[in-house]
Write the structure tokens for this entry.
Amino acid sequence: MRLFDSHCHLDDKVYDHDIEWVLKRMKEAGLVGAMIVGSTLDRSTKALSIAESAPGLYASAGIHPHGAKNCSEASLEYLVNLAKSPKVKAWGEIGLDFNRMFSPRKDQEKWFVRQLEIADNIDLPVIFHERDSNGRLLEILNRHFKKGRNGVIHCFSGNRHELEHYLDLGLYIGITGIVTIKSRGDDLRKLLPLIPTQRILIETDAPYLTPVPEKNHSRRNEPAFVRSVLFKLAEIKREDPESLAKIILENTCRLYRIDESLPQ
């Protein structure tokens, strides 16, 4: 089985002391690739540095909504130059987060729209973050996200209405370890049959959202654990895990425009 963690944060400092072992376990688990997702100027830079250190690793660049208050045209220009690297395969994660409000709503919306424009100009797929935006993210996408552009809703945890609209926009749906958690993942498991298999990606969001059973003995998530997400998906959708893994790998490579032969 060949797997790809479509969203992780190996740039997080919790991996600084053992990144080599994390990558080793990733390979032993059958992963042929991982997308290290940028969230700030510094972390996008670090994500690219890690991606350039080993085959099969890729990076994205962007400003997370939490950091929108510190965003500027100068920082975005820096990230555009960073994105010229062949290892940068996406823009993000970007979007709206009205849950913890680390940045004012006006800043989040302003720089979200601006980054959509940038992703369109440099022709990169977009990694979207949405939390408690109460439909506002969809409103902005309907106005500013061009039909035919590619992107993924990272860590989908919305309702049926939102899911249907994301699918209508042609977006992929990222599924995390939440799907394995009994109470927290209940709503997501009920919606999974509505998602076409050809539009699903699997992700860890490591070091966060550790799946079951790994959650029982490790607080820190890592790419190797994406196997548990895949097996839970196969169980819910009643599909053969190997066949499902093949389709999801194809989905991931199609979105990020990566040759399926891997690694690079």
